[in-house]
Amino acid sequence: MKENNQSSTLDFILLGVSGQQKQDNFFFILFLFIYPITLIGNVLIILAICSDICLHNPMYFHLANLSFVDIFFSSVTIPKMLVNYILHSKAISFGGCLTQMYFMIALANTDSYILAVMAYDRAVAISRPLHYTMIMSPQTCILLLVGPWVVGNTNALLHTLLTASLSFCGNQEVANFYCDIVPLLKLSCSDIHFNVKMLYLGVGVFSVPLLCIIISYVRVFSTVLRVPSTKGVRKAFSTCGSHLTVVSLYYGTVMGMYFRPLTSYHLKDAVMTVMYLAVTPMLNPFIYSLRNRDMKAAMGRLFRKRIST
Fold this sequence. Notes:
The chain is 74% helix and 3% strand. The chain is mainly alpha-helical. It has a three-stranded mixed beta sheet.
């Protein structure tokens, strides 16, 4: 490979989750099992919310948006990994790598901001129930729908353009099963100091929703503690428990992956990406449906309607 960056002909090699054939066989079967469940589960969530008038409120509006994002989030990487395994090829073009990276960053950021929006929605519903419909008006819901997409795509476009300007020479093996920004920066033979600074800024942008979620739940639990009966406590946990479970799964793995120095990243860390990229989108429909009476009832009505027709 020449020293200059030949973007049109450059190919990267995706090393996979572990770089070992036996373990990659296991993850192939795992992804082959997870991906259809993810698609079916999230599509059912969207159909149940759209078809049931009882779920036409802000909380489920944002849940449908989250399911929509999760479908694309898992579809950006898993199908490519499955195809590569079947074809016994780990190659991905420079353009394909940048495209995959762009959508990964955009959807990951969008996902995190939707989780923050859902936390805010629960905080308003519990701390200001009499003003809920006024605060969470249709106009506000549209803004809270569009906002995460704008922030996510803006952040992704910035990092993609910066990465596209780098030169890659010598080793072209990406230490992951998809094109992630961290292993790509480690492969570059250009000066990446500015890119690393912008990466940490991007991590900061990604962290803003977590701060909003913490503030929202501090307000929720401070309100609940002022309720004289245990009914308020049960209501809070029934509406917030599912969301807190998803947030813990998502941010727990993301923080372990990206909230650390660039030099500490290795191929073995790719296993952590499986949790937030594949497992969490698959679990979301189960968490929100099994722990929510309204969703379970809506799912039942949806299945009965399909069976009767």
